[in-house]
Automatic annotation (TrEMBL):
Pfam families named in the record: Acyl-CoA_dh_1
Keywords: FAD, Flavoprotein, Oxidoreductase
Cofactor: FAD
Transmembrane segments annotated in the record for this chain: none
UniProt keyword Oxidoreductase, yes or no: yes
The name this protein goes by in its record: Acyl-CoA dehydrogenase
Length: 339
């Protein structure tokens, strides 16, 4: 569909990240087998330099594997690990070949000196956590006695609030670096899972018979699926715009655009999918709800539509440019970060 990277990742995930595996992990089952298979494939090292055992790829090439991860609703923190490993290498920190890493760019130190990060995506099944608070970056083992997790988002959600009582910084990065990277990871995964939901909806509409013909032949259903298709492909385009960087550093404004637009479309895509499927779509036994839940989870994780739209608006005001010039030069004409 996309290229060799996508095809390879897509085939592997079709075998190892099945709806049954996802249900088992979300119910509290062991996630290490799934993570081990992904880690052994080497895809999580794509953004590491060749000297560090990676492929030295940037976001433009990593887009394909993250899109595939989204299509299969990967519940372990693959995308954030891929980005976190590149960050650690750039900071001169050791990179573990087998540990998964959740990421948060919205940490803060509270009045008691604790590091706090809210609603960290997939941290409940991560081995480590990388958090940025201001310019300071922290790395924490989730099994540490100083790290406490409190699950959020519902019974099957693997996000959690994190409190670290003895945070140990590993270095500094420009403010927003990790938030932008995580936002872009989630934007690409959102585009991927939306593509999967569209495929499921099209197949169901063509197979489900009512009044002697498939429901996909009714104009009202066609109209809904047309709107859904427009939003799904808008999400893909936005995520591709965000992934313009040829190295590990995300383009902050393009990443903001990608996350704001994919988050904005996610709920409507899920709504139309369930409207077309009817009652069966919300049943636990039917697979659709696995993927539409990821639309909601990833849309709110790492900053939602309003947060990232506000970042774009703030940058536009601070530039003191005419809006058209800002859009043309900064949003679509800016150079990707240099190596």
């Amino acid at each position: 569909m996309q290229n060799e990277l996508f095809d390879t990742m897509d085939r592997q995930l079709a075998e190892i990240c099945t709806p049954g595996v996802i249900r088992e992990i979300e119910a509290g089952g062991d996630s290490h087998r799934l993570w081990g298979s992904i880690a052994d494939s080497g895809f999580a090292d794509l953004m590491l330099s060749e000297q560090a055992g990676g492929a030295g790829l940037g976001w433009t090439d990593a887009w394909s594997v993250l899109f595939a991860a989204g299509r299969h609703a990967v519940v372990v923190p693959f995308g954030s690990t891929l980005f976190a490993r590149a960050v650690l290498e750039q900071m001169g920190q050791p990179v573990s070949a087998d540990k998964s890493m959740a990421v948060s760019g919205f940490g803060h130190i509270d009045s008691q000196g604790r590091l706090v990060a809210q609603s960290v995506n997939a941290v409940a099944v991560a081995d480590e956590l990388l958090v940025q608070a201001g310019e300071t970056v922290y790395q924490i083992a989730t099994s540490s006695p100083f790290c406490t997790l409190e699950r959020t988002g519902g019974p099957a959600c693997l996000d959690a609030n994190v409190v670290v009582t003895q945070p140990d910084p590993i270095g500094n990065l420009p403010v927003g670096t990790i938030a932008s990277g995580l936002g872009l990871v989630l934007a690409i995964q959102l585009a991927g899972v939306a593509d999967r939901v569209l495929s499921m909806t099209l197949n169901y509409a063509n197979e489900r018979q009512q009044f002697g013909k498939s429901i996909g032949r009714f104009q009202a259903v066609q109209q809904q699926i047309t709107e859904m298709s427009e939003r799904v492909y808008a999400m893909r385009m936005a995520s591709q715009i965000g992934a313009r960087s040829v190295n590990w550093q995300p383009c902050s404004l393009q990443a903001a655009l990608a996350k704001s637009q994919t988050s904005a479309c996610a709920a409507r895509v899920a709504s139309i999918a369930h409207a077309v499927h009817g009652a069966i779509g919300v049943t636990q036994e039917y697979d659709l709800q696995i993927y539409t839940r990821k639309l909601y989870e990833w849309a709110r994780a790492g900053g939602g539509e309003q947060y990232w739209a506000a970042q774009i608006g703030r940058s536009a005001l601070e530039s003191q440019q005419e809006l058209l010039d800002f859009t043309r030069e900064k949003m679509f004409g800016g150079s990707p970060p240099a190596s």
